[in-house]
Amino acid sequence: MDNLQGGSADLSQYQGKAVLIVNVASKCGLTPQYTALEELQKQYADRGFTVLGVPCNQFMGQEPGTADEITKFCSATYGVTFPMTEKVDVNGEERHPLYANLVDMADAEGHTGDVRWNFEKFLVGRSGDVVARFSPQTTPDAPEVVAAIERELSTES
User: Fold this and answer.
1) Domains of the chain (ranges, CATH numbers)
2) Of 37, 42, 63, 119, which is most buried with the most CB atoms under 10 A?
3) Which residues are catalytic, by number?
């Protein structure tokens, strides 16, 4: 996997951290969630947490931009400072291996399998295991998301 601006996004750099992985899109009704994602990044980064944005254009073409366009939009519109990967597929035959390891986790409604829409969230704990999944409509600052992050940050890696 590469960074949005090129170069390798070595996922091993997140070992021992809690990571909220979110498939993002710039032209979605849920795009304002970037604000709350950035707030989580600022609030918890010094405690061993990061948001990892994963642009995806599989849902009605809502992330059509180039890497440069996505970077500029996220920075200028939402002040995004958290890391972003290259644009990938999260579903289907070309599903990125990262997502192949995430989608077996059930969310609160019991949904497993394919990502349903932009801004579906997966929390990977300090241990490297997927510990929670949240629907696209669950905002990043929802009590259940914050509680799951807090729980992971209180555990040892």
Assistant:
1) 11-153 (3.40.30.10)
2) 119
3) 28
